Amino acid sequence: MISPYMIAMTVFGHGSQVMTASYIPFIVLLLFKIYDVSNKFYYIPIFSILIGFQLQRGHIQIAYYTWMMIGLFILISNYYLIKDKAIDAYYIIKCNLITLISLIFGLLLSLNIYLPVLNYLDQSTRSSNNAGLGIEFATQWSFSIKEALSLIFPYFLGFGGKLYVGSMPFTDYPNYLGILVFILAIYGFLKTNINRKYKVYFVLVALFSFLISLGHNFINFYKIFYYYFPYFNKFRVPVYLLVLLYFSLLIFSSLGLDYFSKILYDRNKLYKNLKYISIVFIPLIFLFIIYPKIVSNNILSNISLYELINKDIINTMLLLLLFIIISLFIHIKKISVKYFYIILIMICSYDYIRINHEIISPQKHLPHKQILKSKKYVNKYLSKDETVDFLLQDKTKYRIFDVLGPQNKWSTFNIENVNGYHPAKLASYNELINKLNSRGYSLWPTSILKMLNVKYLISKEKLQHSSFSLVHKGSLYVPDKYIDAFVYVFNGYQNRFFFIENLSKLTKDKIFSQIKTPDFSPKLNSFITEKVPTFQFDDSASVELLHWSPNRIKIKTTASSDQFLVMSEIYYPNGWKINSYPEMKIIEVNNVLRGIMIPGGEFEFEMIFDPSDVKYGTIITWISILLIFGLIVTPIIKKK
Fold it and tell me: Would you say the C-alpha torsion 351, 352, 357, 362 has a positive or negative sign?
């Protein structure tokens, strides 16, 4: 758990990945037991709980990789069981059936999360046009053969941050394993006599995880999984697969450590193996000498990076030397083997801690961002400043357009921003943003700002624009400092809810083209992709917001005849409905917003988010909990 990879995931905000990955050893252990012990049914509830709890941690990508590991083990186990003719078909079927039942129970246990996720998937960027993320985007963070050297030399490609010279867009940490763990893993593979089935399994896990992690650097292999494995195309960052490589190498490393502990007092075997390890010094010394001749000029021009890489090579040689000295010392002095374990664990821990310290609190490289933040910083970040105070005085429903960032900060104060980061945005909204950004807009067209209910623009510079008027100047806290921010009101601000004069039918592509034109006005003419309802615009019609929350909107309207109401709220088909008026249909307007036909007269309605998938998923989860509990309790009752 102190490996640099796990620490990096934790400090960079990927806690769910760490929690999900932490279940892998236990799941693999239970999987082995299902295929190896006689009383298999006892493991169904335990294995189901592990699978379910891992899925509940919320990092579906790592859970998916775990299921790939499970599938691989089933194939290998079946091969060896069939090969062993002493095993009958019933035994093989029983093992597979127990595993399948456990996986199903585990999946059912997590459906309170994943049933809504699966329904959302088709509407998100992860499933745009049923092509997932797009293979180029999905493989941006791909490992490489050159990058593999960072498993042993953390600074070989600059560690991370501004010194990084690898093939990924950017990174703030190396995928470090360490020379001792790597050498012990080689010995674990070569020298141990564990069941051949397990050895083949961990070798294939390590091999496949490494090859798939290469992503666009081994694209034809990656395409097999991307195009033919269900849901695999929804994932990005192939380098995440290295967690399986680490797991397999650590298994072999522990076996290698066990092998060395057994030969510590055998002079011939120990000396022979230490000689083999000493040979590693030759390529290290050679690398130290010729390194300046094989690296690119951009590394040589960076004196700091060049020096760090040289220190890397020296540190690696020192770690090897320490291992040899300790082994010889234990052998000569006939000291208990437990001290060999303790000293070696201390050395490896120190090696990992020095890398972890550089990841968490960089001293030698320049990160993209500081990870450790003082309590003072956090307090200021979460506290109101003059700009926030000003915006909070406005009690109407509105959104802001922030040209400063960080974009997600505003959510701390329930101020809605049209920008911001989300790993799986709604595809419709993301497409709108991408089309606007592709045209080079730093400030979106005023027609789009109207449509999205933008009222204020936040800038650090004075703005000369006929559509905006300065209304406030005050402090705004951005990372590590206060700056002067200018708040401009958008003169063309349009209410969150408005009646439209005309409604036209167009295809989705034509709608996107129309709403980007300078003369587009969402109130004068909006667009839908279905049959246009009949209505006559009433200029005197009014709309009053009675209540607003993310899951519930209550509105009162008054009009002389039927009207079409547009709500500047994102359209999502799965779950939103008009309470008490189920026959009223919510229509997608301008590809991103909601619209409904409102009857004439005084009308009050409530729009609520009440998705059936959440309800049914929760019911299924509770039923599976009761079934698993029954599987645990039944044998205990029978014994009594």
Answer: positive
